[in-house]
Amino acid sequence: MAGLFSMRSDVNASALAAAPAVGAVLGAPYVGTGGNDTYAGGVDPDEIYGGQGDDVLSGGGGNDNLGGEIGNDTVSGDDGDDTVDGGHGDDSVWGGAGNDLVLGGEGADTMAGGAGNDTYYITNAGDTVVEAADEGTDWLHSQLSIDLTAIGVENVSLMTSVGTQLIGNGLNNVMYGNAGDDSFWGGAGNDSLNGFGGNDSLSGGTGDDTYFVDSSGDTVAEADGEGTDIVYTGATYSLVGRAVENAILLGVGNISLTGNALNNQLSGNAGTNGLNGGGGNDWLDGGNGADTLVGGLGDDTFYVDNLSDLAVELHHEGNDTVLSSVTYSLFGRAVETLMATGEGHVSLTGNSLANTVTGNSGNNALNGGTGKDTLTGGLGDDSYWVDNTGDKVVEASGEGFDTVFASVTYTLAGRYAEVLELTGAANLNATGNSVSNTLRGNGGNNTLNGLAGNDILTGNGGLDVFLFSAGSRADTVTDFTVADGDLINVNAYTGGVANAGLVTQSGLNVVINLGSGNVITVLNAAQADVLSHIVW
Q1: What is the separation of C-alpha 304 from the centre of its chain, rounded to a whole number of angstroms?
Q2: Which of 71, 231, 303, 324 could form a disulfide with 54 if both were Cys (CB 3.0 to 4.6 A apart)?
């Protein structure tokens, strides 16, 4: 590009390193004469200044400080982490091995850092930098526009407030701008572009590029297929029209991000943010504030960490997921999946869709809403609210002491929950599983069957039937009430043959011994009442 300072890799760097015959071996500061001097340092750190004349300075070993000063000088740092400064005139400055600071000074200088992580300072449009691609990770600080295309320098920082241009190369470039309106092009590689002040034009080119945007006037240019890119911004920003996938808000301001048709990852800050994913399968995380997250079309994922966070999804906009570290409800939101994160005790509520609601390791309360839901509590003592016969409760063995509240007929068979309680006043049935269950009825006429395990059955009003299947073990009926017409059904053991000898009074309770360890204890009951209300 015309007008840019360009750098070359075809200059013979070894010629810069070649110094004439040694004039002195120095271990202390030395200042040359007014003539053309030749000085070479020793193995210790040296401080050498050429003074006037066309001088040749060589640092030798050690971390040296060399200054050519006035004249067209040749300055070579050799080994060590050196500071080499050409000074006035058109100088040849070579850092050598080590991490060197290379300054051309005034004039049109040729600079070569050599091996190591070198730092260059450019002040003249006639300066030339020689750096191979495999000679460390290097920085160039410049007051001029820079073209890195033909040189192995990775990183550039501008030192002027005037708008300038930076052109990268095939390496992973880092570019820092200034207060002016800068233009950056990263080229190939995974580049990082930061214009700082001004209205900057940033183009990463191919590779996975990172942009820092600090003004609404900054523009980011990315074409399709040029990598997976990210924008960091402290201002409201939109990715529409830019083939950038990801954006993160900086600072604490109440600002917004808008995605595009790609699969975006949008992250907020500590403020109150608005994130809109647009099309695509988006990932939206508002941060700590009370955020509004709009997924749009696609299968979107929302991260919620504030009770006031609002996830917005319309019907037919994809299969969406909310990941929440706080109590959250999907009511009014067309989201299908709700999952708890972290370890806190949170409550999760679904909607009218067929939801998948999943807890964490805490004690969770899961309510799927009116659809046919799948509720998974995981570790912890979890509570489930079931209102659809198609609801599925998922609990594995050893995952806590769990309770199901059901407003429909429900069974715990195949589910490792311990307690089943019927809600409402409808005539419903409750069935346990192979573990020791507590079954509670509601105000209606209930049939309670604990199945295997040592179960506790409570009817809670209404005409209740306490049903005992074969292998029911040692069960307890807590509120057998003759006035309500309650029945005890042991037909699975007797086959319809009455046997009053199985029923005995034991203190305030009645015991029905069905043999083989299968015993029913009816609390606070009379033998005659039980015999008159038993189904053989």
Answers
A1: 12
A2: 71
Q: Tokens 């070569």 sit at which residue? A: 112
Chain centroid, CA 205 distance in Å: 26
Distance in angstroms (rounded) separating the CA atoms of residues 130 and 60: 20
3-state secondary structure of 530: helix
| 233 touches 251 (CB < 8 A) | no
Amino acid at 382: D
DSSP string, 364-379: -EEE--SS--EEE--S
73 to 87, 95, 272, 420: CA distances (angstroms): 8, 14, 59, 91
Closest CA to 410 of 445, 439, 379, 368: 439
- Rounded to the nearest 5 degrees, what angle is found at the Cα of 239, between the Cα atoms of 236 and 240? 115
Collect all residues with Cβ–Cβ distance below 8 Å to 403 and sequence separation of at least 6. Answer: 381, 382, 383, 384, 417, 418, 419, 420, 421
Cα–Cα distance, 205 to 190 (Å, whole number)? 9
Q: Which contiguous run of DSSP H or E holds residue 161?
A: none
- 78 token code pair: 């050799």
Residue 263 in tokens = 């699969």
3 state DSSP class of 532? helix
Going residue by residue through the chain, which has 536 residues, state the pLDDT in tens, using 9 for 90 and above: 334 444 444 434 343 344 333 344 445 688 888 889 898 988 889 899 999 999 999 999 999 999 999 999 999 999 999 999 999 999 999 999 999 999 999 999 999 999 999 999 999 999 999 999 889 999 999 999 999 999 999 999 999 888 899 999 999 999 999 989 999 999 999 999 999 989 999 999 999 999 999 988 899 999 999 999 999 999 999 999 999 999 999 999 999 999 999 999 999 999 999 999 999 999 999 999 999 999 999 999 999 999 999 999 999 999 999 999 999 999 999 999 999 999 999 999 999 999 999 999 999 999 999 999 999 999 999 999 999 999 999 999 999 999 999 999 999 999 999 999 999 999 999 999 999 999 999 999 999 999 999 999 999 999 999 999 999 999 999 999 999 999 999 999 999 999 999 999 999 999 999 999 999 999 999 999 999 999 99
